[in-house]
Amino acid sequence: MEFSDGIGMRGISRVQGRKYVCCMEYGRRFGHSFRTSSTNVARLFVYLSLKSEKNMMKEKLVFVTNDDGYNSRGIQALLEVARKFGRVVAIAPETPQSGMSQAITINNPLFLREVSKGDGVEVYAFSGTPVDCVKIAFDYFLKGRKVDLALSGINHGSNSAANILYSGTMGGAIESSFYGCPAIGLSLDDHSLEADFEAAKIYSERIVRAVVEANPPTPFCLNVNIPKGRPEAVKGIRVCRQNKGYWREEFFRRHDPRGREYFWLTGAFVNSEPESTDTDEWALANGYVSVVPVQTDMTDYAQMAPLERILG
């Protein structure tokens, strides 16, 4: 028996009942002509299984990390999204690593352990930073395999404006982009332990799908921030630029029971351009998902010519 793609089938075991009827209907639907014998139906089963294997080989590989830890609610939401696009391997920090940016561990050993495996999703906890997780994934665990997409998040709290410079979530995304696959950092503008991730899941899937279908040239990295609230409250998606705002820190001095001085860090965000309507801060404040394309070239090109005159 020969099908249209040239796969020849030999007689195999008997197949009966409902599966027989389903296979006959499949054959008619796709224009395959064969006698209604159990041997031919069995042949079709083998044919379908081979086709399934071919499709599995084409399935995309998605890498996932974050900075809130392998068991955070945000990464659980992101794993749901990622699985819709292929097989998923997640390597995330053993403990929360917020504010680690692109820090790496060089003076301590690192430990990797399997958390769960099944249904096309593998989750591992790693004792390092988000960037350590990326490096162990691409340079060791997944070495030699083509990673089609890297996702980092979903972070508790936004990473708009200057937050991107401190963010472990975006550190993981940017580091992933060095390895030649599209990378997306995703954050929800809500620090609450009871944060509603439904809108984040919906818009993350929408943006990821658009990127996958577009297959953009690399390096490619996005900083995506989703506003707090229910999905119906989100007004849409805005492609925008990074706000130029920054943080002003304040340290509170205290003393422990032994009289030793210690400090607690707090602070407030300063929006240095509140009137600008093309920034990620404005988009979030007005109910839009902000999407900022980012790059690692931090050169201030406007200052190059003046510097050449000053220093020349």
Automatic annotation (TrEMBL):
It comes from Alistipes putredinis DSM 17216. It is an enzyme of class 3 (hydrolase). Belongs to the SurE nucleotidase family. Keywords: Cytoplasm, Hydrolase, Metal-binding, Nucleotide-binding. Pfam families: SurE. Its cofactor is a divalent metal cation. This is 5'-nucleotidase SurE. Binds 1 divalent metal cation per subunit.
